């Protein structure tokens, strides 16, 4: 019987470091809030460079999609870490380094108005090779702006 998965401080730091080192995430200004086996939460402050509709000051749809994908990818990475915890560290890291998005579906429900946008991701399925993650994006007033489902290759 396998050990229960614990997302300890070292693994939390490794996941956070992985996503903070991606230059595109830095350009967008994505910040991590919560990493757990059940949920990942991150946010993005609005800034002028992220506006898609300059007349109304609305967040660009590509930024919305990117934030949801990054959040879903972090959740998939945590799930893959749990599934591969029995492997030696080098083999586990080799598998985790192959994480990638296979499919991403975003439903834009409302215009991206606000000063801060929060994304959450929860696992629907975390298998040995593929994870399916559900994501939501809310603005700073708690309005649901978009939802997404991502499928990720996990080793």
Automatic annotation (TrEMBL):
Gene3D superfamilies: Hotdog Thioesterase. Its EC number is 3.1.2.20. It catalyses: a medium-chain fatty acyl-CoA + H2O = a medium-chain fatty acid + CoA + H(+); a fatty acyl-CoA + H2O = a fatty acid + CoA + H(+); a long-chain fatty acyl-CoA + H2O = a long-chain fatty acid + CoA + H(+). The keyword Repeat does not apply. Keywords: Hydrolase. Coiled coil: none annotated. InterPro entries: HotDog_dom_sf (IPR029069), PAAI_dom (IPR003736), Thioestr_dom (IPR006683). Pfam families: 4HBT. Residues 56-145 form the Thioesterase domain. PANTHER family: 1,4-DIHYDROXY-2-NAPHTHOYL-COA THIOESTERASE 1, MEDIUM_LONG-CHAIN ACYL-COA THIOESTERASE YIGI. Belongs to the YigI thioesterase family. This is Medium/long-chain acyl-CoA thioesterase YigI. The lineage of its organism: Bacteria, Pseudomonadati, Pseudomonadota, Gammaproteobacteria, Pseudomonadales.
């Amino acid at each position: 019987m396998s050990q229960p998965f614990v997302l300890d401080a070292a693994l939390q730091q490794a996941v956070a470091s992985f996503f903070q080192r991606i230059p595109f995430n830095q350009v967008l200004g994505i910040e991590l809030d919560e990493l757990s086996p059940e949920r990942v939460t991150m946010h993005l402050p609005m800034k002028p460079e992220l506006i898609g509709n300059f007349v109304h000051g609305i967040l660009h749809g590509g930024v919305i999609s990117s934030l949801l994908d990054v959040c879903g990818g972090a959740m998939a990475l945590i799930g893959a870490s749990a599934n591969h915890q029995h492997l030696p560290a080098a083999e586990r890291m080799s598998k985790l380094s192959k994480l990638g998005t296979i499919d991403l579906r975003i439903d834009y429900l409302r215009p991206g108005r606000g000063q801060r946008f929060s994304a959450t991701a929860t696992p629907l399925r975390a298998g040995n090779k593929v994870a399916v993650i559900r994501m939501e994006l809310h603005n700073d007033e708690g309005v649901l702006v978009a939802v997404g489902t991502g499928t990720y290759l996990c080793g």
